[in-house]
Write a structure and sequence with these properties.
alpha/beta, binds zinc ion, about 280 residues, about 40% helix, globular, binds fe (iii) ion, 9 helices
């Protein structure tokens, strides 16, 4: 079954987001755990939550993916920033445990001048302090485009983090098509080769979700600028190969393309459904 959705605001609650995703013929969605640029979080709303669960069951809406705020940095050189990241992670995971376990997607962090090795060490340290044996949520490390001092620009960097984690089975990887293309993985001309490399370095069993975006910036540019499908350097043909690749086609896929309203996502979902081979 094609698991396809897009990023949605949960400003009007989870139930509303589920209704929206059904309206545009998706069956999963992604939401921010709290304000992506800040840290404000909505209060837990049990009435909303119960309506959402019932609606999802009746309409075959799958568990969504929760995205951590961009401002969270597990490997800042500033200890207070790392402490704040820990607090946010703890609070987010606690909340997600009330939500019938969506997965939780995280940008690994930016080393802010300390170097990649130190950054990787701090990310693993932060995650190891937060994620305990009884954690029920699967935490995904997102592959990054490679801007600034962002960690996670290569399969090797992600693998280095995973290797240092205590509870490895609680972690996976999210592949953002825009990010990996900008990071220099040629998913347009050599998708098989890229996935083979992923398998050799990280292991494809660790790949749990896809962020499906085109890229406004060229291959290997290390710039993170999402484009609507077909309006960037990746192009629709490559996107269709991605959604139908035997190693990817069963993974949940989330659009994070720029649109003024959800009808833009609706058009993309319709196009993708037309080209997806069940
Ligand atoms: Fe992201
Ligand atoms: Fe992404
Ligand atoms: Zn991005």
């Amino acid at each position: 079954m094609f698991k396809i959705g897009c990023h949605l605001s949960i400003g009007k609650g989870l139930f509303n987001a589920s209704k929206e995703i059904k309206q545009i013929n998706g069956n999963t969605f992604q939401f921010f755990s709290r304000n992506p640029q800040g840290f404000k979080q909505k209060e837990y709303d049990d009435v909303d939550y119960k309506k959402y669960i019932k609606f999802n069951q009746e309409n075959n809406i799958l568990a969504p993916l929760c995205h951590a705020p961009y401002t969270l940095n597990c490997c800042s050189k500033d200890e207070r920033v790392r402490e704040l990241a820990k607090m946010i992670l703890e609070a987010d995971l606690k909340r997600l445990n009330l939500y019938a376990n969506p997965m939780y997607n995280l940008h690994p962090g930016a080393h802010t001048g300390q170097g990649v090795e130190k950054g990787i060490e701090l990310i693993a340290k932060t995650l190891n302090e937060v994620v305990k044996e009884d954690e029920k949520t699967i935490i995904l490390l997102e592959l990054m485009a490679g801007k600034g001092s962002d960690i996670g620009r290569s399969f090797a960097e992600i693998k280095a983090i995973l290797d240092k984690l205590i509870y490895k089975e609680k972690f996976g990887v999210c592949l953002d098509t825009c990010h990996v293309f900008a990071a220099g993985y040629d998913i347009v001309n050599n998708l098989d080769g890229v996935l083979q490399e992923f398998d050799q370095i990280i292991g494809l069993d660790k790949l749990k979700a896809i962020h499906l975006n085109d890229s406004k910036m060229p291959f290997n540019s290390n710039k993170d600028r999402h484009a609507a499908l077909g309006e960037g350097y990746i192009g629709l043909e490559a996107i269709y190969r991605i959604i139908n690749h035997p190693k990817l086609k069963d993974l949940p896929m989330y659009l994070e393309t720029p649109h003024d309203d959800i009808s833009g996502y609706g058009k993309e979902i319709a196009l993708l459904r037309e080209h997806y081979n069940e």
